[in-house]
Amino acid sequence: MDVLNSGIIQTFFLILISATFTDNILLTRFLGMCSCLGVSKKVDTSVGLGLAVIFVTACTAAINFLVYEFLLIPLGIAYLKLIIFIVVIAAFVQFVEMVIERVSIKLYFSLGIFLPLITVNCAILGTSLFMLNKPYSLLQAFAFGLGSGLGWFLAITIIGGIREKVNEASVPRGLEGPGITLIIIGIMALAFVGFSGMIKI
Amino acid sequence: MLYAIFISVGFLAACGGFLAAVLVVAEKKILNYGPCNLDINAGERELTVDGGSPLLSALAENSIFIPSACGGRGSCAYCKLKVLEGAGFVGPVEEPHLTTEELETGVRLSCQVKIRNDLKIEIPKELFAVKHFRAKLIEKEMLTYDIAGLRIELIEPQTIDFVAGQYIQLESEEYKGREAVMRAYSISSVPSDNRNIELMIRKVPEGICTTWVFDYLQKGKELYFSGPYGEFHLSETDAPIIFIAGGSGMAPIWSIIQKMVEEGIQRNSVYFFGALTQKDLFYADELNKIADSSEWFKFVPALSREPEDSDWQGERGLITDVVKRYFPDTSAYEGYLCGSPGMIDACVSVLTEGGMPEEKIYYDKFA
Predict the structure, then answer these.
(1) Which residues of B34-60 are buried (b: 16+ CB within 10 A; e: fewer)?
(2) What is the pLDDT of residue A6?
């Protein structure tokens, strides 16, 4: 029993860490760039949005897994997964919006338009679709979603911190804003390539 | 095959429906702010409304009509109100429309302020006088090839109490693919004719309301509007006047000029009417009649694109140049302008260059 348990927990954390670092959804797979570019100007908004994305990615990965296993496959409509996943993500993000509006009106306003834009964040749809490529169980799919979200959160927070510092430095004209941000993301992606191959999962 | 189509379509519909239902219930439970108290003008009026709706619609439901041209989208900025307490953060939609002074004194766009708790607001007294009218179109005549003159008879309430220069918000109806909207138009008739109003409406290409007026609104049809709104009106002084307006901008000016004739106000006035060609002139006969029969009024139409070789004997050129020529020194006059924001800006600079103090220039900017 102990071996079985540790097996499950071990795989949980292995998947979590690999999704966060070696297969970072933003820096390795380059998904979810637009929200990142738009929000990463300040660290606090980056953190706020990042936390929302972790929550949405993890929960929708689990929900979409259940919908896929227990509704789409039995009914033979697995080919509709793209549409159904996006609909589920959209509804879930609406729900998260309502909760954020009620709980922290400050965060709601500082996120502004980027909160509903989480719906079309490719990282979230990407996670739901990628998890189907591996023979994951529900718990493992949840780990994958959580790891992807964490990886995105990590990336956007670091980028936010770097941008805040770069703001005070002198950037060559023409590169300000999106230009220098993309260069920063590229350099960070180079750094994360160092993680690749560490965990084969 | 058919079975597969039914299943996929049916499942998609069921999925969408189920999620929509869940969200509706969630909204009722989560975004339930309970009843909120609106304190208007320091206790002059108190309302209790259900939280969660925008301030503009909550007031409209209680028969207080704040002007709005964009239907709550936050693009026209007509609905500015002072919210002294309880408004919350200024959203990104409101920010571009509010100056720093306005923000400091608590002015907000009431269509963007969501009622989440008790509010203390200030509503200008004139807005309390605004009513919602049911009326009937009794006359539609083409004043020029693209400007229609409407004569509207009031049904309920039967009379309207307004000041010459004010405007109303006309409600257009839904038609082929365009939603119902509200648009502001100045009243061109005189206040003493209080059972009717007249409007001058210029066709805007692809315009939602003007297309409705030109193509769908027929004689005898009922329509709705609210009003009167606006601070544009004749001053109480004796100073001589420079009127500048072109096209449908004539409406408030025509209302003011008719009132002056009726009440025997004989302040020296010149009305500069700017247009492109002779085709754009209208009411020239009526205005010339007033000019001929009185010593205090002069009518100066100026055409900027009239062909050189035509029979036009009047002024030519841009209206701003013509005004400058007639009045190089404008310091003793008051200015009343109506037109597009670009035209108004140009006229304001000509008048101020001639010495007119900015506080003496009155205008209605219609986008």
Answers:
(1) eebebbbeeeeeebebebbbbbbbbbb
(2) 56
| CATH number for B202 | 2.40.30.10
Domain-located, residue B182: yes
ipTM of the complex, rounded to two decimals: 0.79
Q: Which of A42-51, B8-17, B183-192, B349-358 has the lowest mean pLDDT?
A: A42-51
Contact B255, B165 (CB under 8 A): yes
Bridge partners of residue B169, in order along the sequence = B184, B226
Domain that residue B277 falls in: 241-365
Which of B96, B127, B158 is a domain's end point? Answer: B127
Number of domains, chain B? 3
> Chain A within 8 Å of B1 (Cβ-Cβ)?
no
Write the residue in B23, B89, B116 that is nearest to A91 by C-beta.
B23
Comparing B254 with B42, which gets the higher pLDDT? B254
B89 at interface of A, judged by CB pairs closer than 8 A:
yes
Output the pLDDT for position B24. 93
User: Which chain B residues are closer than 8 Å to A75 by Cβ?
Assistant: 7, 11
B16 lies within 8 A of chain A by CB: yes
pTM above 0.90, yes or no: no
pLDDT at B367: 53
Which of B229, B254, B285 lies at the terminal end of a domain, its last residue? B229
- Interface touch B11/A91, C-beta < 8 Å: no
CA distances from B244 to B30, B168, B185, B315, B318 (A): 54, 21, 17, 14, 12
Specify whether B122 is located in the same domain as B137. no
Q: What are the beta bridge partners of residue B121?
A: B40, B83
Per-residue pLDDT of B75-114, as tens digits, reads 878 888 889 888 888 887 888 888 888 888 889 999 989 8
Q: Is A9 on the interface with B (CB under 8 A)?
A: no
Shared domain check, B109 and B85: yes
Comparing alpha-carbon positions, the chain A residue that sits nearest to B27 is: A98
Q: Is residue B28 part of a domain?
A: no
